[in-house]
Amino acid sequence: MLDLRLLRLVAVAGLSLSALAASPAAQAVDADGALMLARQSGCLKCHAVDKKKEAPAYRDIAAKYKGNSEAPAKLYHHITSGERVKFEDGHEEDHKVVKSKDPAQIRNLVDWILSLPGGTAPK
Ligand code: HEC
After folding, report:
1. Of residues 81, 83, 80, the one with CA closest to residue 105
2. Contact 54, 87 (CB under 8 A)
């Protein structure tokens, strides 16, 4: 079950990687590494790549920040500082902090999220 879901996630990430390869300006993203870190950090309990759960889909986050040059710094801060977030039902809690102290690994996760092709289908 989990394996199937992971496979799908990897497939989605693979697609975005080939899209990136077509763009000369983009740097390579290690999608497998990003996904593994997200999984180890428990991110996928609330976030999925392509559908909304308790938290926005990573694709929607990518769409929201498309073209925003401050996005990488903002998201880096978001996933390392434990800032307060508001859930849809109105309750608030400290956002989960990523389980890594390696800036390159964290930046890779941020770049991967932002590289995802934009937006989930509207409901
Ligand atoms: C307990 C549920 C939960 C977990 C676990 C969680 N998040 Fe979130 N996350 C949220 C919610 C809710 C929001 C939306 C906050 C908002 O829009 O104000 C959010 C927003 C985000 C955003 C977008 C922030 C923005 O500025 O729009 C990113 C990126 C993100 N999370 C990444 C992660 C990563 C990486 C992890 C794992 C380290 C993670 N999240 C774990 C609930 C969660």
Report:
1. 80
2. yes
Mutation to probe ligand 1, out of 85, 93, 98 (largest number of atoms < 8 A from CB): 85
The CATH topology of domain 2-115 is Cytochrome Bc1 Complex; Chain D, domain 2 (1.10.760)
Specify the residue for token string 């990573």.
58
pLDDT in tens, 1-16: 556 665 565 555 555 5
Is the pLDDT at 54 greater than 80? The verdict is yes
What's the pLDDT tens digit per position in 58-78? 999 999 999 999 999 999 999
Pocket of ligand 1 (CB under 6 A): 38, 41-43, 45-47, 54-56, 61, 74-75, 78-79, 85-87, 95-96, 98, 109, 113
